[in-house]
Amino acid sequence: MDVSELKFAELIGGEEFLEVGLNTVNKSAMNKGLSNFVLVLYSNILGICILAPCIFIFYRKRTPPLLTWSTICKISLLGVLSYAGQICTYIGIGYASPTLASAMADLTPAFTFIFSIISR
């Protein structure tokens, strides 16, 4: 195994630990009365605060693509589906354990592979 492959495996393992920790913290916050909608809103705002500076740093020299009506509709649909998916995930964490939510998230690549084989 190459050193770069080992570092990649360590990053993936670290991401899994962070995901389990995040699900555990979210479960405890929901048990103390935090609404699912507020939790998703806070996590999306935190993501924007982390990723927005990266956009200005790495893409400042590129000209942005034109925003057509079709592109705006696709971005809006993606946002609504993502928000609904996060709400469903946090509702599921409220009913079950954070471990189950992490295990279900680990199944996503397998389902993606199966659907890609079916839809060829």
TrEMBL record:
Residue ranges constituting the EamA domain according to the UniProt record:
25-118
InterPro entries reported in the protein's UniProt record: EamA_dom, EmrE-like, WAT1-related
The record's keywords, sorted A to Z, are: Membrane, Transmembrane, Transmembrane helix
Q: Where is this protein localized, as stated in its record? A: Membrane
Q: Give the bilayer topology.
A: Multi-pass membrane protein
Q: Name one GO cellular component term.
A: membrane
Instruction: Give the stretches traversing the membrane.
Output: 37-59, 71-93, 99-118
The GO molecular function terms of this record are: transmembrane transporter activity
**Homology family:** Belongs to the drug/metabolite transporter (DMT) superfamily. Plant drug/metabolite exporter (P-DME) (TC 2.A.7.4) family.
Q: What is this protein called?
A: WAT1-related protein
